[in-house]
Amino acid sequence: MAASLDRSIAPGPFDEHGVAIEKQARPTYRFDTGAPVVFDICHQRGGQVPYPVKRDRVRRLEGRCRAQDTDDYGLMGQNKGNKAVAIRGVVEY
Which of 27, 60, 63, 78 has the highest CB neighbour number within 10 Å of its CB? Predict the structure, then answer.
């Protein structure tokens, strides 16, 4: 399965896209942006928020992580600039 990251991220709060990922899955992610963004993949676990991926001020990123639990994971992007930023990419899981 794949989740598109193609969108425009307005300045301010996190833009979140949720996907269900199975335990021990090894999702891959890749994207490019027009300006630096905060990017992370996270989920809720017993009041804690583990981050398999958490990067600040990136314009391009590619990698793989491991899902520790079957859960709905949030694909999060935040634009700390003052204009909308285009992001193009995909998460495959």
Answer: 27
